[in-house]
Design a protein that fits this description.
Layout lengths: L3 E11 L28 H13 L4 E6 L6 H17 L4 E5 L5 H9 L4 E3 L9 H4 L5 H13 L3 E3 L2 E3 L5 H14 L3 E6 L15 H15 L4 E4 L3 H5 L13 E3 L11 H10 L3 E2 L6
Parallel strand pairs: 1-2, 1-9, 1-10, 2-3, 3-4, 4-5, 6-7, 7-8, 8-9
Helix pairs in contact: 1-2, 2-3
Bound molecules: iron/sulfur cluster.
Amino acid sequence: MIDKVYLCAICNIESGTCSEDCKFCTQSVKYQADIQRYKHKSIEDIIKEAKIAKENQAVGYCLVTAGAGLTDKKLEFVCKTAHAVKKAVPDINIIACNGIASVEQLKELKSAGVDNYNHNIETSKEFYPSICTTHDWDSRFQTCLNIKEVGLQLCTGGIFGMGESEQDRISMLKSIKELNPISVPINFFHPNDALPLTKNTLSVEEAFNLIKLTRDTLGDEVMLMIAGGREITFKEKQYDIFNYGANSIVIGNYLTTNGKTASTDLENLKKLNITIAQDCNN
Ligand code: SF4
């Protein structure tokens, strides 16, 4: 078992407004999943949540918007928000997660105080057309390259349990390795009846082995975060993820599903004698 974990909090600053057709995502308007949908969360509420994240010892705070990418208006809103969060909570890493982005857009985010950008490649290049037809994998990969080009720290990962083959998993991990990110969020598909994908057939053992495969493929340096699907996949065994190579989790709620309350995670980590990292570099 590792002795230190990194906690990261997510804030959905625009929710459920996306016109893309990713088959795993309840934020797509196409599937009419029963989730909260709103255009902009107020900056006041976003700052309030950032302060709570900091109290919960999160080292990162992620500003997520639904949608394929950034429009001028959305970019302006994220920049304004990042600037306000940086001022109110200066000692938390700000991560932006706003879809496909150009070098110019990423430069603006960086100037506004964004430290990291999260853009998951989701799955292998080969399997991607089976889960999304409205944009392609190459534009996702290119965004990751753009992130590195402007000097933002890259977080990129994907989802297991969408019906991909073993080969697809290896291919995705190879692509992630090529990108050399600082942090890799791994999600386990959370089924929802409204989505075209309704099942995740992975067993708990398979899911643990996939965490191990990810760690073995990517090496010891990377922050390996288990994000969405932790509770429903691992249930009472969820802290065993740290025995298989994970060293980071999302604290609090996910984008459209509730996680454990932060206090339960904090209590359980304490019981396991796991230290919580106080910044991204220690
Ligand atoms: S582009 Fe992003 S927000 Fe839109 S459906 Fe796909 S994963 Fe969901």
